Amino acid sequence: MSLVDKLQWRYATKKYDPTKKLSAAQLEELLDAVQLSPSSIGLQHYKILVIENPEIRAKLREAGNNQSQITDASQLFVFAAITNLNEEYAKEHINLVAKTRKVNRDTLAGFENMITGAIKSQSADQLLVWAQKQAYIALGVLITAAADLGVDSTPMEGFNAAKFDEILGLAEKGLTSTVIAAVGFRAEDDAYSKLTKVRKPKNELFIHI
């Protein structure tokens, strides 16, 4: 199938088969894809928690409007934005660039100044929104990669972020939960899997200029 065919196949799965789990290879491929997600200036100013612990997931389900996907899917991904984006984070990114590309760090001074300037020019609230937007890009990559692998997924915003942060101890890690996604395999009796996908026609969605 083409990627478009696979995106036609996918849907926001409402009911998972808890007996079906991703293989280690499937999970690793998803992680590889999300690791490669684009982000502004390449900063990846978020972390992604991959949660399998059933006790933790039961607590998260309570904080997630009792949505069964949280406990029944193979894994739960929690995309958490970095709340303390600062100059030190910029320095660490430049260190990584220099190490990865095997270049003298001094040659990256202009790039580092640009990143630092972008951070200094924004308020704490603006920096958080910036990080959260990047997390959503990673979410989109996860959903697309899952479809390509024949794995079901459910992006979810209906949860109490403050309670998620408390359960997962995110505040002390300088993080806050932004969006979550369940991944796994649909139950045979999930009626939503039989529904025709509803999308705006192209002539209403796209504006060609």
UniProtKB/TrEMBL annotation:
CDD domains: NfsB-like
Record's keyword terms, sorted: Flavoprotein, FMN, NADP, Oxidoreductase
Matches recorded under InterPro entries: NfsB-like, Nitroreductase, Nitroreductase-like
Residue ranges of every copy of the Nitroreductase domain listed in the record: 8-184
GO function term, MF aspect, one: oxidoreductase activity
Annotated SUPFAM superfamilies: FMN-dependent nitroreductase-like
Superkingdom of origin: Bacteria
Cofactor(s) the record lists: FMN
Family membership: Belongs to the nitroreductase family.
Name under which the protein is recorded: NAD(P)H-dependent oxidoreductase
Gene source species: Mucilaginibacter terrenus
Lineage: Bacteria, Pseudomonadati, Bacteroidota, Sphingobacteriia, Sphingobacteriales
